Amino acid sequence: MHKFDSTIYATSNTPIRYLVFLISLFLGPTLAIFELRGVHLALFFLLVLSGLYIIRAGAFDKRKLVLLFFYLSFLSAWIVSHIFYSSLSIRYLAYVFYFTFTLLVYYCSFRALFILSKELICRFINFFIYLDLIFASIEIMLGASFFGNNPLAGTEYQVGSSFWANMNTNVVALILFNTSLYFLGAKKSFYLNTFPLLILAFFVDAKLCILALIGQILWVQLIENGVIRVVFIIALLFLAPLILFLFDKHVDAVVNNLDRVFELLENPELLEQIVSSGNMFSVAIRAYALSEMLSVLSNFSFFNWVFGIGFGNLNISFINNKWGGLIEFFSPHLFYLEIIVYLGVSYYIFYLGMMKLLASRLPWRSIFIALPTLGSVIAISSAVYFLPLYFFLAVMTFWEYQNYVRKNNG
Q1: 365 band by pLDDT with thresholds 50, 70 and 90
Q2: Based on CB atoms within 10 Å of each CB, which residue in 51, 72, 122, 192 is the most buried?
Q3: In the prediction, which pLDDT does 224 show?
């Protein structure tokens, strides 16, 4: 494949549209006019852009047609297979929309990396990260949410959550954006930003995010080259006691929470009693959500493992008196398992295929490098419609494509 055999890889005369798109993507729910949120503005951009592609002569070249056929093939296979054992409810159709919307976010993010220079995008990411950190720091010092007081947003924001309403969600978004800098070649910024992000994660007690931040920066050191690996391993022998001392409480908290989850999973009677009491605590809620997913998976046929049970067809429900009684369709809080329940392994085959079609090679190396960052996503309730994840997948695809072109051009 030649670098410019498709307009997918070509530049544009109107780059401002992609900058507006990135702004709406990065600001998430904060950019809002009542119920019109940043994600809706991003969707509006995508619809307008898609319309321009359709009416523009020569817009659908061979590669775009292949991508469209690939999307329609998988979507048709899912819908047809789900008709046999699930109803196509409004919720199902809503999740079809989420899938299509986030795929457009992924594709347009990939395009933005060609339209806008890497240097501009890196400056934009750095600006956003530090703007987010400033707002989060102000919130923590004042003990109040800055954007929660915005009458146009109309959303309950946690203290220290900045643009993303939830503390864990905010830190995960920052982790995804920061690791994007590594793949875009701004490695110095990636390393420098990790320290203030760690401080924020400490203050908001985002334990899994702390481990992801430390794990990502150590992981890239290990895979950079052989000399660094040797030096790192030697240094780690001396630094390990200090690291364990500094992060002892957070590691213990994560381990203890995991122990409590496994204890509850091994004792379904106790978990059922806690659920029935209507006063579920955080770990029990997540253990219950996990037990419900594992229960669904235990009854999976081969057909289910391939196609899942259908978009959104997982109703985790329980009584919680503190939250107002019956809770239905509770977020699974383990995205990668949630997707298996909905769409089976075919979802991962689909995205690996999309990344292969755009980058001309499978993204095994970028996935391997980004394992800690991708792992941080399980800290949020669900990533079905979490746009920073799909931006990050686009960055990984762009990195793989650049390496493919570099290798084939000598």
Answers
A1: very high
A2: 122
A3: 76
